[in-house]
Every structure is written in C-alpha cells, then in structure tokens.
Amino acid sequence: MVIVNGQTETGIVGQTITEFLTQRGAPLENIVVERNGDIVHRADFDVTLVAENDKLELISFVGGG
Predict the structure, then answer these.
(1) How far is CA 28 from CA 1, 38, 53, in A?
(2) Residue 65 located in a structural domain
(3) 13 vs 62: CA distance, rounded Å
(4) Phi, psi of 39 (to 5 degrees)
(5) Tens digit of each residue's pLDDT (9 = 90 or more) over 5-35
(6) CA 58 to chain CA centroid, nearest Å
(7) Phi, psi of 31 (to 5 degrees)
(8) What SUPFAM superfamilies does the annotation carry (predicted)?
(9) What's 20's domain CATH number?
(10) Given strand 2-4, what is the order of strands in its sheet?
(11) What does the angle CA 2 – CA 35 – CA 4 come to, to the nearest 5 degrees?
C-alpha cells in the first residue's frame, strides 16, 4: 500500500517514479514529487522505486495570469 496525496493506492510498488507518473498521465516536466518527506530530484525519477508504505505527494505547477 502506498499513500499518494492522502489517498491509498495499490499496484504501484516496484515502479520507478517515472513509470508511476507516466501511468497517471502526469506532466513530468511540471511536477514535484515528495517521497516520505524528501523531494525526489527529477534526475532520480528513473532510478527511484516506489516502496511499500511510501507516502508520496505530487505537486503540479500551473501557469496563468
């Protein structure tokens, strides 16, 4: 079980952050991922695996005026 933005999600343990975000259709270039309280650097998205009991926060930036 993984908590993503306060919601329980299953079936994502073992995926990289990139795989997880791509599956969700998240914009890789405009997102910040926090994993267990630490920011995951974009350069590490391809090598950071989602683990059991992780808590992820996804923050997207939206432009506008």
Answers:
(1) 23, 18, 23
(2) no
(3) 28
(4) -70, 135
(5) 999 999 999 999 999 999 999 988 889 999 9
(6) 6
(7) -135, 145
(8) MoaD/ThiS
(9) 3.10.20.30
(10) 7-9, 2-4, 55-60, 31-35, 38-40
(11) 35
Domain that holds residue 27: 2-60
Tokens of 42: 């974009």
Strand partners, 9: 2
Instruction: Considering only the C-alpha atoms of the chain, give the largest distance between any 2 of them, rounded to a whole number of Å.
Output: 40
pLDDT at 27: 85
Q: What is the pTM of this model?
A: 0.89
Tokens encoding 65:
């005026």
> Helix (H, G, I), strand (E, B), or coil: what is residue 61?
coil
Give kind and range of the element (H or E) at residue 40. Answer: strand 38-40
Amino acid at site 44: D
